[in-house]
Amino acid sequence: MSSEEKKYVSVALDGPSGAGKSSIARSVAQELGFLYVDTGAIYRTVAYCVRQKGVDPKDAQAVAALLPEMVITMGYDGAGLQRMYLNGEDVTKEIRLPEISMCASQVSEIPAVRDFLLDMQRDMAKKHNVIMDGRDIATVVLPDADVKIYLTASAEERAKRRHRELREQGTPVDYGVILVEIEERDYNDTHRATAPLKRAADAVRLDTSELNFEQSRQEVLRLVREQLSL
Ligand code: DC
């Protein structure tokens, strides 16, 4: 994109599951008046459809054959929260079910799925100032992003946070089970052939293992302000 065409700024926030990307991105977007785009939610919507149709998420051909029937759209509610629609049906809540997480990781390995979702993600950045979180935002979706941050934390720390969150929500899950799932998703996301999770060479690595939410949020805000001269 030439600098003349580029009207909006974009912040790419990549990293593994449970690093705190979404809560930080949402809060930073709110503070700066940017649109927060959660790209994981888009992959989750594909996963939801695949499960609903009873298709094996590892069967690339069968999943690809479903794509033409999927109309995925996103919108924002009054509180600025992203909502996902599958063929007009609001699936925002359903895509958060635990069984969708692993399925999303599996369908996201399929190149046809990634291609199918690429323009939708890029369009958001053409029309708004965005902070977009995902796995390949800085490397593939928005390689010209103005700010690139790779947010990470140790698998143990991420599992601890998720464990606490689920306990607070009244749906406790064994810590060991959470840790294994996080490690499994990390492996899938970093080892797939297409657009694997990795830090872009020009992304700033921010490890939040020793930081609390507010410290991590402040650090992301500082990096964004510094690089955008805000
Ligand atoms: O961020 P999340 O946990 O909601 O994402 C769900 C899955 O989607 C994750 O395991 C990997 C995949 N994903 C991806 O491959 N690329 C993205 N940009 C975002 C998510």
Q: How does this structure look, described?
A:
The chain is α/β, with parallel strands linked by helices and 230 residues long. Helix content is 49%, strand content 16%. It has nine helices and eight strands. It has helices spanning 21-32, 39-52, 60-66, 98-107, 111-127, 137-141, 155-168, 175-191, 213-228, and strands spanning 10-14, 35-38, 72-76, 82-86, 89-90, 130-134, 147-152, 204-207. The strands form two sheets. It has a five-stranded parallel β-sheet, sandwiched between helices. Strand 3 and strand 4 form a beta hairpin. Helix 1 (21-32) crosses helix 9 (213-228) and helix 2 crosses helix 4 (98-107). The protein is globular and about 50 Å long. It starts with 9 loop residues before the first strand and ends with a helix. The mean pLDDT is 94. 2'-deoxycytidine-5'-monophosphate (DC) binds next to helix 2, helix 4 and helix 8.
